[in-house]
Each structure stands twice: as C-alpha cells, then as structure tokens.
Input
Amino acid sequence: MLTMRNSLRIIVSDVDDTLADVYEPASENIISGLNAMLERGKRFFFISGQGEQNICERIVRRLHPIYRNQILLGTCSGAEVWGFSDGKLAEAPFYSMYEDKFTEEMKREWREILRGIIDDFGFLVLETMPRDRFAEVSGGDPKIIMYEDRRAQITFEVVNGCNLNDEQYGYFKERVPYLLPDRDLRVSIIRHANELFEKKNIPITARAAGTFAVDFAVKGVTKTTAIEAIMYHGKAAGYWENIPSKEEMPLTLEIWGDKFSTVNGGTDTHMCEAFPHDVRAIDFREEPKGELPERFNVVLWDGEQHLCKGTEEYMKRSGVIQ
Ligand SMILES: [Mg+2]
Output
C-alpha cells in the first residue's frame, strides 16, 4: 500500500486531473491536504500547461498566505517559473523562456497567425469552461472551440472537432484549402500553424495536448527544462534554499501526475526526466501497467479512486487529512 514518507520535503506535481478537474477549482479536501502539508514545512512545485493566473485562481489563493513562499509554479508547459512574495504572486517570473526569446514583434505576429487560422476554419471562439458546461453550450458543434491566451502559451480546446462525421468534414473541406484527410481538425491546424511559424521564424510549436487541445507553446521548452533551471541552475536562489542533493532526492522528493503512459504521450514523464530515475512518481490515472516507462520509478496509485479523487485518498490514507 502506497503511503507518504515522513522524509518527504518537496512534491513536484501536475495540476490538471491530478489536483483539480480541468478548468475547475480544486476540491476542499485537496486544499485542506495541501495546507496541512505546507504547515508541516513541505514545499510544492506545481508544473502545468496552465498559466500562473489560472493556477492561482483554482488552487493557490485558497492556501495560507504565510506558506506561499513554499510554492513554485512552473507554467505554460515549463516556459516560466513563478514564486510568491508577501503572499502574493511575484511581479516577475524567476525564469522565462518566453520573455528571453520573444520580441514584441514576434508576440504580435504569433497572435495574428492564430487569428488567421480561426478565420480560415470559421471558428466561434468561447472562453474556457468546465467540460460539462461546454458540452451544453456548444451542443457538439465542431465550429465552436474554447480559446485561452496564457501569455506564454495559447491553447485551443477543439472539443467537438477531434472525430468529425462526413457532414462536418464536408463543411470544413469546402472552406479550408489546407484541410488534410484526417477527421481530427487538430492535425490540419498543427501542420499549418507550424509551417507559418517556421516561415516567419517564430519559436513556437503547435502540438496536440490533453484529449482535445492544441497547445501553441514556446519551442524547445518542456517541464524538464523549467525544473532543471530551478533545481540545478539556481534560478530561484534566495527563494528556495536547501534544495536536496541528487543523492537525497529519492527519499525527500516525490512526483505526482496522471499521464505517464508511453502510448498516450506521457507528458508527466517530463517531470521524471529532471530527477534521478529512482525518485518515485505516482500515477493517479488508471493506466495499463505495461505502458509505463521502464526507466523511471513510476508506480500506479493503488487506491479505490483515481485522478484528483485518488490524490485525496492518498492524503487521507497518509493521515494528512481526515
Ligand atoms: Mg494532468
């Protein structure tokens, strides 16, 4: 039975589906658990494709302000890392591959390209919202997508456009000259966007993410590079001191996530890449054991429930919450 070790000092955790449902706030239990662990001096490095405002809204603003300097946010898939000062989000990130790589001109051009693609497809763009609510509002129409500008990353949620029927495909075929035969619109969006970024020399990569998203993220950036910048290259020196040595990490550090399967892209594996390979990672999704990457110490959560509910169960079993 998996339980939390007393020697644990740092938890490196994914956010969506590990700590909170996508576009939903974290549950009361998760918040109580995080607060209890912060009180005991544990530190958290939240790593996510989301932006800093989103993670603050859904999680951090409900955590004790006095312990917020025990928290780091790795945002936009690792493009930036943020900390807190006097309980508030710091004014600037410790590390930003976005600000380092992008001129104002590039920031503008990138957004123009995406507006062009939205026009080409005739998409109606809505703000992000929980899946159930979007299903209600969009009624399954693939022309309706969610759009979020996270500053260092932009995301399209092509919820209804990943498996088109003949009629829907015909609609897009008539209006989009570069539509590929694939019934998942993301394939055409990604290919076309990457061609345009390359032509204009903009260091952004379009890639499929989650179950129905397209992420437009800073090129060459991963969750691994963000973690390494902090843990080994002193990018948050003065904020987080006494980072455990690599020898100490297997006993003092743990990774939480929900996507490690090598078949499904396994984006949470990027967190493992940054640490000695025997550091334990818990997979809170029910993924087939045979699909887990062998070179890391990824273990499947062995409780009754999974995803965020599994994380709650882990906190309960370990005596963190009642
Ligand atoms: Mg996740």
